[in-house]
Amino acid sequence: MLKQAYNNLLSTFQFSQEGGPFKRQQQSQQEREREMTIRVHEKAQKTIRDIPNSAKGYLELGRLYRQDKKLLKALNVYKQGLQVVSAVDPQYTQLQKEKNQVSATLTQRSRGFHQFLPYDVLIQIFSSLDFRDMLRCTGVCQQWCNFMMEWPEFWQKMSREMPQVNRSTLDPLLRRQAQEFRLEGPLDQGLVHDMLLFLSYSDNHFMEKLCFSKLDLTDTEADLLAEAIRSTSALSPSGNYLDPPKKKEIIIPNVEYTSLTYLKLSFHYIQSYTRPHGTPIANGRLGGILHQCPNLVHLFMDSGGTINHKHLITQVIKQCHNLETLVVAPRAELPTILNGRVDTNEFDDDTTMSTNNHSSNVGAPSSSRSVPLSIRNNINSKKKPLGIRRLVLSGKNLKLDDNLMVSIYKKYYKSLELIYLHYDGRHICTSSFYRLAYHGAPRLRDIYLSTESDANWNSDKHPPVSKALAALFTACPALEIIDIDNCYGEVSTYYNERSRGTFLIVNNEVLKEISNNCPQLRKMRFKGARSHTREGLIQFASTDWKYLTDLEMNIEWQHVLEVVNKLTVLKNLDIRDDTSLNHQSTFPENHRETANRILEERGGRLNITRT
Question: What is the secondary structure of 461-503 as a DSSP string?
Answer without folding.
Answer: SS--HHHHHHHHHTT-TT--EEEEES---SS-SSS-GGGTT-S
